[in-house]
Structure formats: structure tokens, C-alpha cells
Amino acid sequence: MEKFRDKLRDEKYAQRTINRILWIVGSVFRLAIKRSQYSKNPVAGVERAVQPARELKPDEATVGFGTDAIDPDSVLSPKEIQTLLREANPGFEKTLFETAFLTGAREGESCSRCAGLTSSYRKKVLARW
């Protein structure tokens, strides 16, 4: 399986695609094991494809698939973050914003936790975002 993974790398498949293929193949073997048609999953011990993190250079700073340049005006300054946290309602709203700023979570990632909120309060939180 390592040779197969490396072949996919050599053919310039994206890391995510390689991992998805390995997951699918592993699922097939898990099902075969469950049905007693196979005794071992050869994918289980294979290291997944990872792309090491690296610092972006200013001319590489893009969002998504490299098509949308980051607008510096869309990024909050430290002073703006302090103001937002100071003005946020204590409790859930302040915790949500603090978590987003500390982890770098995007709006959709952070607000997936907002599902239980009333729609009017959720709109208010998102408007402040």
C-alpha cells in the first residue's frame, strides 16, 4: 500500500485525494474482514499523506485554492480585536469570539456551534463577526 500511496504522490495527486483513496480502500478491507473474507487490513498501518506546514510569503497569501487574494482590510487588527472582545456580551458570545481569535477558526467552523441558538441571536452574533 505504501507503493500505491507513493505512486499517487508521483502522479501529483493532492494529499487530500490520496488520503480519501486510502480511506475508501481501507473501508473495503474493513468490510471484507467483517464478512470473514479477509483477515488483515493492509491500509491500517499506512501513513497518510501529509503536506508539511510552511510559512506563506506575502506574495503567496491567498485563500481557498489560491484564487482569492487576502484583503488586508478584511483582517482585524489587534486593536479591533480588543474592541470587539470588550464590546461582546459576556458568556457565550465573548467565548465564541475569543476561541475564534485564539484558534484561527473561520466563521463557519466557529458558528457550527451556534446551531442551538435562536435565529435572532445567531444573526446578531454573525452580524458582529
Total number of helices: 6
What's the total count of β strands?
Answer: 2
Report the order of strands and helices: HHEEHHHH
Structural class: mainly alpha
Strand ordering within the main sheet:
1-2
**What Rg, in angstroms, do the CA atoms define?**
22 Å
In percent terms, what proportion of residues is strand?
under 5%
Overall pLDDT: 77
Shape: elongated
| Helix proportion range | 40-55%
Which residues sit in consecutive blocks of at least 5 with pLDDT less than 50?
Answer: none
Whole-number count of domains:
2
Separation of termini?
Answer: 45 Å
Major beta sheet, specifics? Answer: 2 strands, antiparallel
Structure description:
This protein has 129 residues and is mainly α. The protein is 51% helix and 3% strand. The protein has 2 domains: 1-52, no CATH class; 71-128, no CATH class. It has helices at residues 2-10, 15-34, 78-87, 92-103, 107-111, 119-128; strands spanning 62-63, 68-69. Strands 1-2 form a two-stranded antiparallel ribbon. Helix 3 runs antiparallel to helix 4. The longest helix has 20 residues, at 15-34. The model has no long low-confidence stretch (mean pLDDT 77).
Descriptive key words:
mainly alpha; 6 helices; 129 residues; elongated; 51% helix; single chain; 2 domains
